[in-house]
Amino acid sequence: xxxxxxxxxxxxxxxxxxxxxxxxxxxxxxxxxxxxxxxxxxxxxxxxxxxxxxxxxxxxxxxxxxxxxxxxxxxxxxxxxxxxxxxxxxxxxxxxxxxxxxxxxxxxxxxxxxxxxxxxxxxxxxxxxxxxxxxxxxxxxxxxxxxxxxxxxxxxxxxxxxxxxxxxxxxxxxxxxxxxxxxxxxxxxxxxxxxxxxxxxxxxxxxxxxxxxxxxxxxxxxxxxxxxxxxxxxxxxxxxxxxxxxxxxxxxxxxxxxxxxxxxxxxxxxxxxxxxxxxxxxxxxxxxxxxxxxxxxxxxxxxxxxxxxxxxxxxxxxxxxxxxxxxxxxxxxxxxxxxxxxxxxxxxxxxxxxx
Length: 355
Fold this sequence. Notes:
Blueprint: E1 27-31, E2 38-42, H1 46-49, E3 55-59, E4 62-63, E5 67-72, E6 78-88, E7 91-97, E8 107-111, E9 121-127, E10 133-138, H2 147-150, E11 151-152, H3 167-172, E12 181-183, H4 195-203, E13 207-213, H5 217-220, E14 236-240, H6 242-254, E15 258-261, H7 263-271, E16 273-274, E17 277-278, E18 281-285, E19 300-304, H8 311-320, H9 327-340, E20 351-354
Parallel strand pairs: 1-20, 3-13, 3-15, 4-12, 15-19
Antiparallel strand pairs: 1-2, 5-6, 5-8, 5-11, 6-7, 7-10, 8-9, 9-10, 13-14, 14-18, 16-17, 19-20
Helix pairs in contact: 8-9
């Protein structure tokens, strides 16, 4: 398949610039795979789609304030740092802007986003073929500890306002169940859930469990090749706890549904699949799911609306028709209906349920 096969037209005004007034106050587009029909609901209607015995799996990775401002220690210009992935204790791979002017050996001093803070420095150890820099930080035992003072919310570039400018972003660009820190972008399908909704689902007999996939560049990097199969995903770290694996495996043996909240959860479960079971543990995945893909674990998917020609849209298209090539047409038709009905798109936008 060609990358251009996954393009669709989206009016700019449908790109959500801020979250809904309440987390669960979003819309829900329902796509029925057996019939290809589309229904329009509210997110709170998701409870009616779930049944006792279903296993709902969520990605509990916590977004870090990954965007940093710095200046060269010699005073020669400002530098923007976007942390991507921890490489070693107090060392991170990062996107640097302007990248060409930040060479290996460059020393940087971080600028506190709160106005004051300790002196934190970084040195660029090396650059890779993609132009990303490996930074070693000093002035703190762990740079994660000082990110609340120096970092800003790493909002996507299609949200056209200054990052870190809204106190709402600190809370709303984070799921209510976020735990281990490490993502540089939110697992956005989970942003719609409230504590009360999760409690209500548990009360109805839905089993809820968690995986961790630290969302990095691999999830959002653009596809730059024309042939989809030639795209190379970046690796991302995941953890599939033994308790989650046991819950998922019991459901699969019993013929009960395993429901993924978000594409990152899909990628974690399918990466850990051994036949119709999952293996617990920590690992790294560069799985690239596109049509035709035969899913081994996931039976239903809750997701947001994704960028044109993105790997996320390709994954959703594969899930719409597992093992077949027709999912792209189903999803693009549903997206066209979402545009006509003025759904809100992307990270802060509305949700989609595929069953």
